[in-house]
Design a protein that fits this description.
Helices cover about 0% and strands about 55% of the residues. The protein has about 120 residues and is mainly beta. Strands 2, 4, 5, 6, 9, 10 and 11 form a seven-stranded mixed sheet that branches. It has a four-stranded antiparallel sheet with strand order 1-3-8-7, with no helix packed on it.
Length: about 120
């Protein structure tokens, strides 16, 4: 069983920055595909960013050039650096661990961007 704990969500003004963290236990982030998803009220959960075991990264179109996903294997933690935040980035952000056999989710962290 992999346990994921997100942190770093906050209220921030448009144009500001936040860094989200996802600390994992029970599984190594270095061997999994680690994803950040977000879900706004009344909307589906969408992929924001992904980093694979070989450090390949992918981003949703709406965050390209503004968000950066990274991984610290020693800390077993994945990060999401979010810059130039917009009100439409407001959502609950979820960390996801997927290794081909199993899939685990964190509890989410709220990001609110005010205009």
């Amino acid at each position: 069983q992999v346990h994921l704990v997100e942190s770093g969500g906050n209220l921030v003004q448009a144009g500001g920055s936040l860094r989200l963290s996802c600390a994992a236990s029970g599984g190594a982030v270095s061997v999994a595909t680690m994803n950040w998803y977000r879900q706004a009220p009344g909307k589906q959960r969408d992929l924001v960013a992904r980093i694979t075991h070989d450090s390949t990264t992918n981003y949703g179109d709406s965050v390209k050039g503004r968000f950066t996903i990274s991984r610290d294997n020693a800390e077993n933690t994945v990060y999401l650096q979010m810059n130039s935040l917009k009100p439409e980035d407001t959502a609950v952000y979820y960390c996801n661990y997927a290794d081909g056999q199993s899939n685990f989710w964190g509890q989410g962290t709220q990001v609110t961007v005010s205009s």
